[in-house]
Amino acid sequence: MAGPLGAVCVGGLPFLFAWTKAPLVVRVFNTSLLSLVSAISAVVYIQCGGHTPLDQHLSPEILWVHCFIPLEIAIVAHFFLNISGVSLIISATSPQSWRAPFRRMVRDMWRIYLGYALVGFLIAVLWQVVDLGPITMIFMLVPLILAQWAYAQQSAEAQAHQRTVEGLVAAVETRDPVMRGRSVQAAAVCDVIGADFRLSPKEADALHFAALLHDLGMIAPVEEERGRDLSQLRPGDIDRIRRHPQRGVEMVRSIDFLADSTTAIRHHHERWDGHGFPSGLAGEEIPILARIIAVADAYCALSSDRAGEARRSTDEILTILRARAGSQFDPRCVDAIVRNAPTVTARLSQLHAVDDTADATAGHAGWDHDLPETSDLIAFGSALR
């Protein structure tokens, strides 16, 4: 409403000089993105017939047609341009697809944008049209403080959820070196498949958390024998594997924000042919999020380093998964990972590079319960005895 230059001064430049601990590159990015988005939105406002600046004593009809409606259109443009820019930078600098953060921000931020748009409109009208001037801020200060407080609370809650999940994932990886990095890898692959399936933001979040925590039950105590060959499965190991989905559910049952993830955690080892566990579900009886985790888990296990073996190529992994579509895996999930193989490969390459930098355990000699052949041994277990 102050024109493109005014929009840049109000919407972008404050981020460059704000008191914050954020690195300079982050502040420069925020300033550049928001300055550009604010200027474009100001142009949208003008092109839609918006008055700039506002005249005093405008009629309600003119305020509606030449202020409020153009402003709302400009706010919508600002909203989608802003979250698109943030989503693209997240995609470029992390294993996530741009779709997942984009849809999550649409879900979490549209109310905030709408609220600030209404407050901004009231400030402009009271300041200039009603001619209250700076006294306007006395009336609007409380709503602004409440809006900022609500946003800060929402952000703090999201950070607390993330720290909780990271702590649980660390427990899994500490207990079993074979699983080092697996949870994050599976979550990255699930994000890609979930975007292909066009899951709702709520389902996408449930899938992401379930993928991170689906093996939490593996940290349960198990009797070990010194000196035994960890590459060989025993009946006791099979019992531990069979029990870990339900144990994982029991461990997160009291965490409210994980309520939508528990079904996927419980059933991620079910098989399309009905020979999985713990419930022996088959086909469409298996929850879709669990089916996605199953194929993502197998892909990550097949792509990991194994002692004395070269890492499999993407073509080799996809050939194995295709051969099991309709028996172990949902064919639609296999098709989705095949369609998105370049993206999946790129995401896992980034994560493997991070693991290598962190000196993660590589070339594991232990057994991996996520490998397809382990699923076969459990489903048709006579070979273990």
From TrEMBL:
SMART domains, A to Z: HDc
InterPro entries (UniProt xref): Cyclic_di-GMP/3'3'-cGAMP_PDE (IPR052020), HD/PDEase_dom (IPR003607), HD_GYP_dom (IPR037522)
Classification via PROSITE patterns: HD_GYP
CDD domains: HDc
Keywords, alphabetical: Membrane, Transmembrane, Transmembrane helix
Ranges where the HD-GYP domain occurs: 157-353
Membrane found in the keyword field: yes
TM region positions: 24-46, 62-90, 110-129
Record's protein name: HD domain-containing protein
Originating organism: Rudaeicoccus suwonensis
